[in-house]
Write a structure and sequence with these properties.
The protein is α+β, with helices and mostly antiparallel strands. Helices cover 44% and strands 14% of the residues.
Length: 314
Amino acid sequence: MRSRLLSCILALIALTTAPGLADWTQWRGPNGAGVAHDAGSLPESWEPGGAGVRWQTPIPGEGISSPVVSGERLFLTTAYDSPTLDRLRSVLRIAALAVAALIPIVWFLGRRRAGTGGDGRWARGVIVAVSFLFLIAVLLVTLRPEQFFELGNPGRAFRIGGALLLIGLVAAFGWLDRRSPARLAGALAVLAAAALILLYMPASSRGPTPLSKSLPFVALQVILAVWLLFGHLRARRSGGSESRGSRPLMTLLLLVLTAAVYLPINVLNGLDRVVVCLDAGSGEILWQKTVFTSPPEKKWPTSTYATPTPATDG
């Protein structure tokens, strides 16, 4: 788990353990008044690790809520990267790097396989260029994700992830025979995916994302998809030879690579929202329970994740 440990220094004096005092069951205490009744023994001041502090306990995550007290138990909430999703992202990153290393080898070993169509060399060069452009982009976002993605900025992740998805599909289906129905299906899938990306682009804090900001992320892919589509239609109509040899292995590798880089960006991400229970007398963490996993949240350098204060009826 990549989340850091925050030192949660809780001044738990007579209020938390002394018999006869009211529980602190919600934010600002009973009735939300922010007043501790019958707490004449409370210290007027305290220092971390010094006077007035009974114990201090490191709490996992970033974003510690105000604590509530019920009987001998203290509850608070925290947030940290989902360990399960983090492991899945790590596996997919390793898979992406492994497949990315295989693609140049497969291309080099089979580079002489080509058809004899009139525009074969030109078409082959376009697909090779697109494939290696995609490969370079994958390596960059896999090895240096912090340069491309901002936590809590779903619009940016959606645009970059969508752009990679589309260029990966174009490269993958471009290696098939230009008369293949699968190549036609791939071109149509790219056009449909581009339309969905533009339609469902997340809004920013300033309002809906303008088309001028989203269109550059899909324009090249749409042009290439239209080129694949018309190339297929011309080949079917003319009945001529294919422009280059069909390479289904390259298609398979590029599809796997596309999934391995897209899923961590737009699907396998989130924060675990966790309730932590501690013993009010000793500060020992008794249990932690993930309540739900939420989308990534923007965290400012001088702040933490927003976490709600729990409440208990005892």
